[in-house]
């Protein structure tokens, strides 16, 4: 058994995904041009906040770490890293984007004629929560995961689909829209987050308490090699395989396949609880602050109405 750093044998392109970082840099440049120089073409535009700049850059860095750094390569080798990647990508990065992207820009995007009819359906709380958790559960069925890991195109498409579904799922909680949409109350947001955790639990439980390894991609040498082709250039992969005795994840870790699988399930569940704890804290105190502000506004309006009424009667004294 070698250390995790042994993944360096697969070369620079497999470990650091230079094309992916170029793509993220392109997205970042286009985004900042859109919300600064070109923002005047978008209704309701405003100057970008410093917090939004920082959070967007942080989200892109996190995106590169989980999908472009050696963590992505390790996610195809060791199941634990796969679940770490899932948790950070869909339960951390996506919610951050709601605070990194101005609400007027999100409103503009989801109001496009070719997006709005679909978005109005898929962002409904019940549909959104079922859609993401259903896709997440289906993705982690052994037959589905093993199949997708053998095709770079299908795996990428399903990853994008999960990302969009995650955005739709978190929209009812974190959107700051100015559009005339029915919003969840603070209490319903708390229940909503709790239900997401409940629906994620069966998949994690199945993975944690399984009595045998479920995924050929992480156990069968042939399937594992096919999965490695998703992120390692074929020439490099052939060269490494001919020069070493690598036959699977055991070359990089001393965990058995079952231990790795169970560890992955635990990582997903623990990170889920941590992320959801922060979300519940934010939603609860934002709700209480909003309720307090509404009470103050109501009191102020009542006082103003009383003063006007008194001034009216004073005219006839």
TrEMBL record:
Recorded GO CC terms: plasma membrane
Segments traversing the membrane: 12-33, 53-75, 87-106, 126-145, 152-171, 191-211, 266-285
Localisation: Cell membrane
InterPro entries, sorted: Caa3-assmbl_CtaG (IPR014108), Caa3_assmbl_CtaG-rel (IPR019108)
Alphabetized UniProt keyword annotations: Cell membrane, Membrane, Transmembrane, Transmembrane helix
Keyword Membrane: yes
Chief site of localization: membrane
Membrane topology field: Multi-pass membrane protein
One Pfam family from the record: Caa3_CtaG
UniProt keyword annotation of GTP-binding present: no
Annotated protein name in UniProt: Cytochrome c oxidase assembly factor CtaG
């Amino acid at each position: 058994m070698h250390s995790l750093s042994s993944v360096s044998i697969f070369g620079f392109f497999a470990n650091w995904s230079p094309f992916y970082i170029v793509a993220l840099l392109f997205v970042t440049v286009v985004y900042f041009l859109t919300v600064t120089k070109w923002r005047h073409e978008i209704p309701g535009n405003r100057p970008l906040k410093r917090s939004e700049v920082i959070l967007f850059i942080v989200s892109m860095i996190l995106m590169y770490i989980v999908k472009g750094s050696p963590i992505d390569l390790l996610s195809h080798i060791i199941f634990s890293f796969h679940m770490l990647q899932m948790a950070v990508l869909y339960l951390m990065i996506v919610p951050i984007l709601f605070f990194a992207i101005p609400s007027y820009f999100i409103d503009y995007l989801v109001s496009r004629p070719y997006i709005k009819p679909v978005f109005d359906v898929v962002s409904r709380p019940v549909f959104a929560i079922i859609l993401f958790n259903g896709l997440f559960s289906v993705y982690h069925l052994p037959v589905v995961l093993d199949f997708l890991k053998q095709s770079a195109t299908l795996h990428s498409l399903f990853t994008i689909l999960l990302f969009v579904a995650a955005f739709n799922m978190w929209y009812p909680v974190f959107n700051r829209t100015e559009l005339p949409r029915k919003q969840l109350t603070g209490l319903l947001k708390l229940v909503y987050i709790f239900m997401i955790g409940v629906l994620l639990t069966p998949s994690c439980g199945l993975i944690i308490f399984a009595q045998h390894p479920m995924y050929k991609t992480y156990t069968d040498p042939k399937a594992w090699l096919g999965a490695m082709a998703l992120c390692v250039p074929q020439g490099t992969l052939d060269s490494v395989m001919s020069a070493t005795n690598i036959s699977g994840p055991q070359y990089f870790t001393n965990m058995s396949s079952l231990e790795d699988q169970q560890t992955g399930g635990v990582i997903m569940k623990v990170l889920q609880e941590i992320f959801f704890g922060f979300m519940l804290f934010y939603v609860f105190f934002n709700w209480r602050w909003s309720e307090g502000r509404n009470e103050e506004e109501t009191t102020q309006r009542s006082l103003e109405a009383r003063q006007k009424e008194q001034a009216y009667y004073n005219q006839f004294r």
